[in-house]
Amino acid sequence: MFNEKLLKISLAFIVFLIIIGFVTLNYMLKEDNTQSSYGATSTKRATNVSTDAKEISLDTIYINIKSQKYKILKADIALVMKSNTSKKSLQANMDNVRNAVLQYLNTMDANGLETVSGKERLKEELIDMLENTFGYQIETIYIKNFILAP
């Protein structure tokens, strides 16, 4: 008698758990039209492509530098031009601009580049060099990736 009563209680509890499970799953699937609430996050891919129409990338630069601590610099540099005409003329002359940037980085004293003020100094010097050499109107420079290696 005791075993039968225990068996009935156990079966009722199992049925109750199954019903709770179905209700929970149904609730989670109804939130986002047949998707669980765990999968409701947006899936967007991150890219290095800018949405700014006046920005142009110089691609990734690997170069030996003159520094006491570091030997190699890897950087992704993007220039934001003040006008679309400056951007078009820079695109037409990209090989020369990239070469000038590489030569400048190769000859400059790279001590202090690991600091924020050193990176700001580098940006200002690159803007001055490009404006004086090529006559471009550069609004700012973004350094998207910056790695110094010993």
The gist of it:
By secondary structure, this protein is of the alpha+beta class. It is built from four helices and three strands, in the order αββαααβ. The model has no long low-confidence stretch (mean pLDDT 82).
Stretches where pLDDT is under 50 for at least 5 consecutive residues are none
Figure out the total of helices: 4
Radius of gyration: 30 Å
The CATH class of the largest domain, by name, is Alpha Beta
Can you tell me the number of structural domains? 2
- Give me the CATH architecture of the largest domain, please: 2-Layer Sandwich
The largest beta-sheet arranges its strands as: 1-2-3
Helical fraction:
40-55%
Q: Using DSSP, what is the number of strands?
A: 3
Question: Helix-strand pattern, N to C?
Answer: HEEHHHE
Spell out the CATH superfamily of the largest domain.
Answer: Band 7 domain
Euclidean distance between termini CA atoms = 81 Å
Give a short account of the largest sheet. Answer: 3 strands, antiparallel
* Overall geometric form: elongated
Structural class: alpha+beta
Strand content: 15-25%
**CATH topological fold name of the largest domain:** Tetrahydropterin Synthase, Chain A
Report the mean per-residue pLDDT as an integer: 82
Looking at how many chains there are and whether they match, the oligomeric state comes to single chain
